Amino acid sequence: MKHNDHPLLQRRQLLALAATAALGGVPAAVQAQAGAGTWPDKPLRMFVGYAAGSGIDTTARQLARQLELVSGQPVVVENRAGALGNLAAQAVANAKGDPHTLLFTPNSTHAANTHLFKKLPFDPVKDFTPVSSVATLGFVLVCDPQVVQATTVQQLVATIKKEPGKWAYGTGNATGLVAGAMFKTQTGTDLLAVPYKSVPPAIADLLGGRVQMVFADATLAIPLVRSGKLRALAVTGSRRMAALPDVPTMIESGVPNYDLTGWFAVFQPAGVAPEHNARMASLVQQVLRDPKFGESLRNIGAEPESSTPAQLAQRVATDTERWGRLVKLAGIEPE
To answer: What pLDDT is attached to residue 331?
Structure first.
């Protein structure tokens, strides 16, 4: 049997052709030629810096499934939870020149963590090759309705001020940490930040009564809010979420100038050949053109957003400065 006649290889090529046709992409003849021998030519590894079941993990696995279809290669998601995404980023930085190694990460590793840590084990610019943005993501202030009686942000603030020293918020990522610190600073409330490796254990402790509030990524918050297990008091962005249209923004809730959203993006290690970087960017953008994939993101509180590698590099530069201002505003000292 010839290598190209192997049933598994044929199946992957057929999946790639079907996905391309569904996305209205490259003609079938061109795609067939690409599937026969162009890059990627072996499985891809996608590192995620948060635990399985977290919001970013859910999004990463959705993207991985679609990349398998358009690339014809398996995409293995590897979770390296801890240090606000730094462990996964370090693993990818160490794979210099390997185009088959990907980092799916939020803004923490490439914008916020520079200001949250005294020293990073990688350089967010020099150690990575930008591929494409994937989505922007809002955050939601949630509490347990069985424990917290407040139904608005103003009621919550009044309650916290009556009970100083008794309130804590769980945080499982950089955006949630800064969101809580900004809330504390701008409302003049006494809150303790309790760090977790990712958001799911923070929510578990919220439901267990060990913390009173969490600034959760929408991906995790939405199903719990819809089921009634959690109450959403406000979203952190400047606009309401399509998935939670009845939940007001922080600004609408009386916290002026409060605007905080995160983003997800794909990076390769530094030293990747330009043609492999361009090919990977094309594959990610092809997935993002699929209306069904975009709808799947919106259903979990994210908004699809693709970019060129150059545009992502510019976003990293701009957001690094922005997050410096936000961290300073929140009163957070680097650790």
So the answer is: 86
For the segment 116-160, what is each residue's pLDDT rounded down to a tens digit? 999 999 999 999 999 999 999 889 999 999 999 999 999 999 999
**Which carries the bigger pLDDT value, residue 242 or residue 93?**
93
- Under 8 Å CB-to-CB from 130, ≥6 apart: which residues? 265, 267, 309, 310, 312, 313, 316
Q: How confident is the model over 247-285, as pLDDT tens digits?
A: 999 999 999 989 999 999 999 999 999 999 999 999 999
Listed residue (68, 72, 18, 19) closest to 41, CA to CA:
72
135 CB contacts (<8 Å, ≥6 apart)? 59, 263, 264, 297, 302, 303, 304, 305
Q: What is the domain class of 139-235 according to CATH?
A: alpha beta
What is the DSSP track for 72-92? SS-EEEEE---GGGHHHHHHH
Return the structure tokens found at 146. 């069985």
Q: Which amino acid is at 254?
A: G
Same topology for domains 39-137+261-330 and 139-235, yes or no? yes
Q: What dotted CATH number matches 39-137+261-330?
A: 3.40.190.150
Read off the tokens for 323.
């997050």
Is 269 within 8 Å of 95 (Cβ atoms)?
yes
DSSP symbol at 21: H
pLDDT confidence of 204, banded at 50, 70, 90?
very high
What percentage of the chain exceeds 70 in pLDDT?
A: 89
CA 101 to mean position of chain CA atoms: 18
Cα–Cα distance list, 208 to 50, 111, 170 (Å)? 21, 32, 12
What whole-number distance in Å separates Cα of residue 153 and Cα of residue 271?
Answer: 48
Domain boundaries, the chain: 39-137+261-330, 139-235
| DSSP state letters, 152-217 | SHHHHHHHHHHSTT--EEEE-SHHHHHHHHHHHHHHT---EEEE-SSHHHHHHHHHTTSSSEEEEE
What's the predicted TM-score (pTM) here? 0.80
